[in-house]
Amino acid sequence: MRNNAQHKQPESEQDHQLPAMVLSRGRRSECLLGYLWGIAAPVICTLVDWPLRHVLGTASILMTYLLGIFLVASRYGRGASMTASLLSIPVFAFFFGPPTFSFAISDIENIVGLAVMIVVANVTSNLLEKARLQAEIARQRENRTNALYRLSQALSDAQNSQAVARIAVQHIHDDFAAAAVLLFPDANNQLHYPCAEPLRQSLRGVNLAAAQRAFDQRTIERHSDPNTPIYFPLEYSQTMLGVLAIQFVTTPELSNPELTTFFDTFRNLIAQTLERLRLTEQANNASLKAETESLRNELLSAISHDLRTPLTRIIGASTALVENSDGFSEEEKLDFNKVILEEAQRTSELTSKILDMARLSSGEIILHQEWNTIEEIVGSALNRLEKNLGTRPVRTLLPDNLPLLWIDAVLIEQVLTNLIENAIKYTPAGSPIDISAELLPTALKITVSDYGLGIAQGMEEKIFDKFYRLESETQQNGVGVGLTLCRTIIETHGGTIHAVNCPEKGASFIIHLPLHEPPQINWHEGMGA
Amino acid sequence: MTNKANPLILIIEDDPQTRRFLKTTLCNRGWRVIEAENGKTGLSMIKSDSPDLVILDLGLPDIDGISVTQRLRQLSDLPVLILSARSQEQNKIMALDAGADDYMTKPFGSGELHARLQALLRRVTRSISSSETFETGQLKVDLVRRKVFNAGNEVHITPIEYRLLSILIRHAGLVVTQHQLLKEVWGVEHIHDPHYLRIYMGQLRHKLEVNPARPRYLLTEVGVGYRLVDDVTA
Hints:
The complex is a heterodimer.
Chain A: E1 4-6, H1 27-49, H2 58-76, H3 78-95, H4 108-156, H5 161-176, E2 178-185, E3 191-192, E4 205-207, H6 208-217, E5 230-236, E6 239-248, H7 257-323, H8 330-361, E7 370-372, H9 374-384, H10 386-389, E8 394-397, E9 405-407, H11 409-426, E10 433-439, E11 443-450, H12 482-492, E12 496-501, E13 507-514, H13 523-528
Helix pairs in contact in A: 1-2, 1-3, 2-3, 2-4, 3-4, 4-5, 4-7, 5-7, 7-8, 8-12, 9-11, 11-12
Chain B: E1 8-12, H1 16-28, E2 32-36, H2 39-49, E3 53-57, H3 65-75, E4 80-84, H4 89-97, E5 102-105, H5 110-129, E6 133-136, E7 139-142, E8 147-150, E9 153-155, H6 159-170, E10 175-177, H7 178-186, H8 194-208, E11 218-221, E12 225-228
Parallel strand pairs in B: 1-2, 1-3, 3-4, 4-5
Antiparallel strand pairs in B: 6-7, 7-8, 8-9, 10-12, 11-12
């Protein structure tokens, strides 16, 4: 599939019309004007000298012609001045050189004068031409330097290869009057036409096979037909970064060494930027990978520790029962069985938490949002934790007539369950837990507070980190993923969750859930169906 | 239904260890147990052995649990308890909507299992005896006169609220899915309008519960539906 991929040419030619090249702008019309002045100068001199022909000597008249030629030379260069001087000879001979009204010149003085005039005209125009050329070259150099400066400025802001391509195409269009496109390789080093919307200045018709050759062989691919694009490999420090395809509108002047150098610098700048971006991306990927790797290791060690602890107890208790059943009293056996049950439950809880985390942290949280009441969800969470709560007092302060929330009830229940579980875990048995809600103008604020020791100073944010666990709770199990999970869920809902220490209380977890336009309720229908 | 004293329970479950645990526990409680290790055998055993109750695992190797439930419902009205793993949330709801009576999430304890089975069997006896009153805890509902009493005092409830309550009473102890309730109370066109349900359920709780945020009778099974607890001790 890498044969000629012809992309549609734009319909209107206007659209594709390019401004004249900066480097030769207006040169042709300038030239024509010069020759016209070359013809006009002798004519004007004749017209001026004719009334004065009896006052002035021929030498003075010759001087006026010389002045005309000189002026033309100074303004329009050699061609124009040569025209003027060659035209001046017959005109002078005809009108002023005796015998007048004949092209013959009898006077030796006038012949010498004419000869001197031609030589002087030639020399001055040569000198002037050289000066002009130098000025022109200086101007071109300045233009090129400016162009390179603008390009490097623009490229330094580019954050990705698409931006580089865009900038490159625009600048090539402005500075070379050429349509261009940057082709980047995919993972298999196959070049593709960019998927992004092409710019007005982009080159549309590209021969991908030729481009691929340029890429593979690292050579410039050009066709004998000047109307086909040229493919330049973009290479920087031995790395192939892509191919630049250019279609010059005028015949490429790349034979001019200075222009070639300019163009090469242009290409180099583009390649260099691409390489810089590639290296940055590589570095980012590497650090991300390292981070993920270390997270995974942390998780694995946390999980294996947390699973092994209850399993050790289960295996210990059950082997004791199986191998030495007769040696224990009924009471002891019951004790062992209780241990097995508790530890198995703990393992089960942990497993489901890990499962949830895997589901949520894979980045694919799909919210099943419905209209729900927070009262119902609080009730369900408390019911679920009935056993864990035991006789611990739970105070629920939920005002009547709270609005419906547009939330995923299963996930929000999980958040509340996690928060209540935490409160149970980290506060002394029997200390109360408060759950309250408060209606704010744009959000519902839900607070879960306990009466424990609170959160250590400065740790209020850290506890939401993955795998963080409150210190000194050696006997407590459970990978510290609960709060991370909570935050992920709440933030996916467009809400916030944070922890504070409340005076006279312990830790408070405060959730803000955004309010939505409530659903239409057809009370009549509701009553009547 | 032949032996009322010892109900016959059919376990359709592919994992032998779970079957073993279920059989031991159930036999220990005095129930008779037959086993099937896949959906096909299970369905044919329903025809041949006419059990009193079915315990159906959702993750069967041959037919998925939802299809088993549907085919089973074509054969019989017998109570069905679903066993589901956590990853089968959606299938669980679909199976309930397809006609299963209740579910249990693995892993579960024998006490929980026993309570569920009791509730399921009570449903059968209730539908046969069609009792005139329903009582749980302080709550008493006169099904003939359509009156509700809480701690001896009559509670005024609207017709819609009563309809909701009566459906839950019909399935007392069992979960009733959101779809079922919406369909039965408001009609099929409101099946995707759970906010009606939330509002009326909230009103009902405020009338019947001491603390609506920590209900004793009308429990929410978030993401599934509602359950009226039928064995609240007063």
